[in-house]
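dude i think i finally got it to work??
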Amino acid sequence: MSLKDLRKGKGAPLLNEEATSSPRNGWVGVLPVAELPRPEGVKEEDELYVAELEIAVMCPDCTNYARIMGIGSEFRNVTKLLNPRFACSVCSWGPTPHNSPEKWQVYYAGRLNGMMMFAVNEEHMDVMVEFLETPPNRRNTTEYPWEYRGLMGRLPRGILSGRFRNDMVSLVKRLQRTRPHGI
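look at this
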């Protein structure tokens, strides 16, 4: 299964009944749902923002680059997606009822001063670099993609301080260089 096939709607469906996450260890959960939950503060008459979300993960079989794609409202530690599909860039492994992981290891992950930092996909890395390079007094007035608001609000305060901010930008740029060719 190639990533082109995944973009065309092919790929193996996820079969998780539950999903767990451990963001401090670089694991995220992906939970298939029949209906997207409404975020706090969004009333039923308000329009729910939805988009095609992509999560870059390691394939549980061959540990190469893989993707989970589905329709969701925003990225969370446990991201709820309508019709999530999985495809590995190398092997043809697909989740089955007896071997579908409850949590997936994020492909773009690294440690900074003992803290695990991860990005769910390539766009998230670009948003993090932009966010970290923006002076702290302008971050509230700068617009960032709405899909990432849940993750950006959870960045550790120690990383956002001036002391480690440049190290964090360096880590994210190093992770960007691990991007497979053709992605």
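The first helix runs from residue 3 to 7.
im so relieved honestly
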